[in-house]
Amino acid sequence: MKVEEFEIGKLLTGLTYQQYHNFGSSRMALRSSHLKQLKQSPAHFKYALENPREETEALRQGKLIHSAFECPEKFLDTHVVEPVFEGRTQDGKLTTSANCKEVKEKRAAWLASQKPDVVIMTQADSDMIVGMTNAVSKHKLASRLLKDGIREVSGWVEDPETGVLLQYRPDFIHEAGYIIDLKSTRNAATWAFTHDIFSDRGFFYLLQAAHYTYCAKLMGHNKHDSFTFIAVEKTPPYGLNVISLSEHHLEAGEAWRRKLTKLYAECLEKDQWPCYDERAVSPDIPRYLEPPMFDDEFYND
After folding, report:
1. Rounded to the nearest 10 degrees, how much is the dihedral formed by the CA atoms of 28, 20, 197, 201?
2. Residue of 213, 140, 169, 195 lying closest to 69 (CA atoms)
3. DSSP-assigned states of every residue in 241-290
4. Residue 246 and residue 182: Cα distance in Å, rounded?
5. Which single residue of 28, 147, 172, 188 could bond 180 by disulfide (Cβ 3.0 to 4.6 Å)?
6. Beta carbons of 22 and 3 less than 8 angstroms apart
7. Is 160 exposed, middle or buried (0-12, 13-18, 19+ CB in 10 A)?
8. Would you tell me how many other CB atoms lie within 10 Å of the CB of residue 258?
9. In terms of DSSP bridges, do strands 149-151 and 179-185 run parallel, antiparallel, or are they unpaired?
10. What pLDDT score does 301 carry?
């Protein structure tokens, strides 16, 4: 699909992530990851926008996982596992070392035979994806949630309050109207993943959930005040946990979403991207440092 064919206010299927990224970037559209950067400061957001970070191992794995779940029927056509190449050293010993001349030659020849747009994976990558997809397919609730609906969708909608163009790319929208996001994680236990959702010092997935549900309401396809995470561990035994946020949970995220969206609109209008407050600040005492309250009997014992 060509960029000029993109339609604001309508869900589009089949777009690659690069198309989604390019269209949004060209129009300064606001996404949930931008909100997390704005929360630190507009200056940090602007710097990150103009200086894209190098792809980390976690980000690389995340792209692979989402590619496998977004379009499983195309995954094997666009991704290939790199084999182990063997060669002999000068003294005739068999080796798989990347420094071996014969290994280098075999690998170069194999790479040259691949399609230009193919994504190379390691065997460990493949094992991880197989383990995670099996975990989802064997989980009664998760497999049911991902059965009937649309995946690989992208959307843009104008915020009526600020005029800012918003963009989002939900992993899956169930036909019943539930918005579902798949998260790969090291620990899917409720206590651990809850921290990832609500801690504003970490991933703060609550902000993403609020942004997605708000966009969905504006576009008219969110029938429930809820948001569902399917958290899947990246290592054996590939534990899976389905965690649903209610309207009560989302209210806290919505307050942050609205505040940061307004901040973004102001920065865009003025073309000013401030950092921290230039005035001295007085921090609150963390609750865990506050002295315990005892009655007089405690001291008289």
Report:
1. -40
2. 169
3. EEEEE-HHHHHHHHHHHHHHHHHHHHHHHHT----S-SS---PPPPGGGS
4. 17
5. 172
6. yes
7. exposed
8. 15
9. unpaired
10. 52
Q: Is pLDDT at 297 greater than 70 in this prediction?
A: no
What are the structure tokens assigned to 161, written together?
A: 């309050």
Q: Which residue from 124, 141, 153 is spatially nearest to 65, judged by alpha carbons?
A: 124
How many whole angstroms separate alpha carbon 99 and alpha carbon 121? 20
Q: Residue 210's closest CA among 166, 257, 248?
A: 257
pLDDT at 72 over 90: no
Burial readout 38-55 (b: 16 or more C-beta within 10 A, e: otherwise):
bbebbbbbbebeeeeeee
Q: Which of 65-69, 125-129, 210-214, 250-254 has the lowest mean pLDDT?
A: 65-69
| In contact, 173 and 150? CB cutoff 8 Å | yes
32, 168, 265, 272 from 268: Cα distances, Å:
17, 19, 5, 7
**The domain made up of 7-80+123-270 is a member of CATH 3.90.320.10:** yes
Q: Which residue spans of the chain are classified as CATH 3.90.320.10?
A: 7-80+123-270
* Model pLDDT for residues 11-56, shown as the tens digit of each residue: 888 888 888 888 888 899 999 999 999 999 999 999 999 998 888 8
- The token duo for 210 is 């609020």
Q: Which amino acid is at 189?
A: A
CA–CA separation, 163 and 4 (whole Å): 21
Q: How distant is the alpha carbon of residue 134 from its chain centre? A: 21
Contact 188, 210 (CB under 8 A): no
